[in-house]
Amino acid sequence: MTDINLDEFDRAVPERVARHRESHPAGFEPGLTYNPEKGGSLVVKSDEELDPALWANLIADFGLDPNYTKVVPGSVQVRAWDAAIGNNETKRMLYYRATLTPRSIPVDDVDVTELIAEVKKWKPSKHAHVDECGRALVVLLSDWQLGKVEPSGDGPEATVGRIMRALDGLVRHIKDLKKIGRPVDTIYLVGLGDIVEQCSGFYSMQTSSVSLDRREQMRLGRRLVLKFVDTLLPLGTRIVLAAVPGNHGENRQNGKAYTSWTDNDDLAIFEQVSEILAANPERYERVSVPLGAIADNLTLTLEVAGIPVAFAHGHQFNGSGGSQAVMERWWRDQVMGRQPVADAELLFAGHKHHFVASESTGRTVFQCPAMDGGSYWFTAQTGNQSPAGMLAVGIGAGYGQRGWGDLVIL
Asked: What is the per-residue pLDDT across 277-291, written as a single tens digit (0 to 9) for each?
């Protein structure tokens, strides 16, 4: 057993205690804890009394802006102890702890009277400003369901009438945009699916509520799409055709698609129109169908005026919740799976026959209204009905951070 000199042990005790006191007191460890919304606390160690005027410098040293962060009055706490510094000498040490809170943005220098005077003297510009930013207009040809007859008597004649009135409104809209200094460089005519109704296999009463056979539906669809092209040609803009397949365009047997997802009448109509255009290159030199614009799967992504835009009919969306939630959940899953629509900033879909626009996910989703005569069964179930219409949206850098504007339902 080792002998212990008790006298030396007793003399060493104060020094050991002093060294122990140099450890940080509980709750007073130097550092910063801060939430920009809720505030926090700042703890500093000093060997001399801290001048209250130095708190702004300390706040800045920790990476915060003293203009927007301040010490709560009366919150400063101080703890002191003697620390050994050698040769049996001690020195008084201090810990300061202060509660921090967000500081209101300084407004003392704002001259409200001057601001009000600026508001009063502001007047709209007399001359339209034409900027150099490219703009496209995306026109969604969605859910025409040509050949469908509703119990109300609304059939193909009424549907065609709505489509032609929408086309008239589209021409006026494009001319109006030019007048106010936002001319359209390119018009995208995008078939969002369900251009035709088909004749059977979708619901039990379909064979008794269709007035056009499949061939007639497709012929009418071709003529209408070509009518859009011919009507817009004199406006002098470039025209782009594109399309995705809908569920009513599927070739079905016993209620199920039995060939492939893209063996679809909606795509066939646009494909046939593109062949008509290609056979008349001189007349349709400003009309193009980019490679892949007739979708080879259920979705399509195009770069429109520099902005990636995705299109889908919407019959592939599923799950519970409202139509907006279902769209956004589907898109989120596509992004996680790195599918072709993942990089898009905007998503257009149809299928649900009513209009929705949402930016709640940081990207924008549009659900497009339909052109058909509505659904008697839907109204009988819910008491609701959605107005028919054709959505057109301006897209391009000229619309600022959102990348879109000049939305209209025709």
From this structure: 999 999 999 999 987
* Contact assessment for residue 308 and residue 344, using Cβ atoms and an 8 Å cutoff: yes
pTM above 0.90, yes or no: no
Q: Is 392 left (phi over 0), alpha (psi -120 to 50) or beta?
A: beta
Q: What does the pLDDT look like over 317-343, one tens digit per residue? A: 887 778 888 888 888 888 888 888 888
List 152's β-bridge partners, or say none.
Answer: none
Residues paired with 80 in a beta bridge:
94
Q: Is residue 56 classed as helix, strand or coil in its secondary structure?
A: helix
Phi-psi region of 42 (alpha: psi -120 to 50; beta: other; left: phi over 0): beta
9, 30, 55, 97, 355 from 21: Cα distances, Å: 18, 15, 25, 18, 70
Angle between helices 214-232 and 156-179 (to 10 degrees): 20
Asked if the 136-409 domain carries CATH number 2.40.100.10, the reply is: no
In the block, residue with structure tokens 């072709």: 340
Can you read off the two tokens belonging to residue 269?
């109509």
The whole-angstrom separation of Cα 98 and Cα 311 is 55
